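Researcher: Sequence recovery benchmark, item below. Answer with residues only.
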């Protein structure tokens, strides 16, 4: 009996984790399957042969892409070579629409392999004209937010809500760690009021968000000297880059800042509240039952384009899922350190904190009961058909 080959493409840190879980779930169904593609350390540990290392694509934004164009071009060429050499039976694209949507067209031209898009690109947020383009290029869509099937209604695309892949992982971490045990593992003062800083997983996000987050920390410290800060870094971010930004911030000597690498969920669980950029990390914070403030500032030209193109009323995922304001958002000119400090301090204790946590629990309930990777693996197996002799 021949074993299938799957080509996977996951261009960011969260996609790397989701793809790795899908690989493990699929291998339970087809133990001899081979996996090749673009990914990061989680996919490598899951047994994927990496044709392209994910950190070559660790950049976001529109005008920020220019400096990374040579690396992206290399990744594009290598994935084309992997497609030709592996001759996959199925292509699985995971998030990263900026790379994976064009790559889907390339697969269509050069391969007969069906395409599953797991964790659909957020074309519903901006450039909605891409919805029909996605429908033409992809055979099946496994979506992770409950409102997404309706977005694709009438396109002819087969869409299934599989639940959010973070539900299982975050539930396990929530049951394993409370704030005190998480602080013990990280060596944090168990009595301090800890605020987690989550500046993003891409290089340009760090450059834009971290200085603002550090300035906000300065304002919080000036008003509440007992507050402390844990800065959580994604594996895709070089520590030297962050250390240089921290040095330039010239924070007060008495301000406690602990940098944690590659253990973001643990840092979230250890914190009393969180300051995060928009993105999938806000879903992690929701599922780990911590209140948050969401902030973001991008290149001015990128912001101008987004103001014209974006079709959603909010950027924080809890607000989009709930269809109303659950967590405060401070974006572009509104991302002022004093205002963000006010919002963070209000969430350390009291009725504002309790109300947000109650609303976040309602959001978490909408993300499914778990098992997203298993359901996505089931869709992949169905697309392959029965094993060949």
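Model:
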């Amino acid at each position: 009996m021949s074993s299938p080959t799957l080509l996977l493409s996951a261009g960011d840190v969260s996609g790397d984790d989701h793809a790795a879980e899908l690989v493990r779930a699929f291998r339970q169904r087809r133990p001899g399957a081979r996996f090749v593609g673009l990914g990061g350390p989680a996919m490598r540990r899951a047994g994927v042969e990496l044709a392209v290392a994910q950190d070559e694509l660790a950049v976001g934004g529109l005008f920020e892409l220019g400096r990374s164009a040579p690396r992206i071009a290399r990744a594009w060429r290598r994935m084309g070579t992997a497609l030709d050499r592996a001759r996959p039976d199925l292509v699985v694209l995971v998030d990263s629409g900026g790379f994976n949507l064009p790559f889907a067209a390339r697969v269509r031209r050069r391969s007969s392999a069906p395409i599953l898009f797991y964790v659909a690109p957020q074309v519903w947020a901006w450039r909605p004209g891409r919805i029909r383009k996605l429908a033409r290029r992809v055979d099946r869509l496994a979506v992770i937010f409950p409102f997404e099937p309706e977005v694709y209604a009438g396109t002819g695309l087969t869409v299934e809500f599989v639940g959010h892949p973070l539900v299982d992982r975050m539930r396990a971490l929530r049951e394993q760690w409370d704030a005190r045990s998480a602080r013990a593992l990280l060596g944090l003062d168990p009595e301090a009021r800890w605020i987690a800083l989550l500046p993003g997983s891409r290089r340009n996000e760090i450059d834009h968000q971290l200085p603002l987050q550090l300035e906000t920390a300065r304002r919080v410290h000036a008003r509440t000297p007992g507050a402390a800060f844990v800065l959580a870094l994604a594996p895709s971010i070089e520590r030297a880059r962050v250390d240089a930004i921290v040095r330039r911030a010239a924070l007060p000597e008495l301000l406690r800042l602990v940098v944690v690498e590659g253990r973001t969920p643990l840092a979230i669980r250890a914190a009393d509240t969180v300051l995060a950029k928009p993105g999938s990390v806000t879903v992690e914070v929701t599922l780990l039952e911590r209140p948050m403030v969401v902030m973001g500032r991008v290149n001015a030209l990128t912001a101008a384009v987004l103001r014209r193109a974006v079709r959603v009323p909010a950027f924080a995922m809890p607000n989009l899922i709930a269809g109303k304001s659950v967590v405060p958002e401070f974006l572009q000119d509104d991302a002022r350190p004093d205002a963000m400090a006010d919002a963070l301090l209000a969430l350390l204790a009291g009725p504002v904190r309790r109300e947000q946590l109650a609303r976040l629990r309602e959001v978490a309930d909408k993300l499914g009961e778990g098992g997203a990777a298993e359901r996505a693996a089931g869709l992949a197996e169905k697309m392959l058909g029965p094993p060949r002799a």
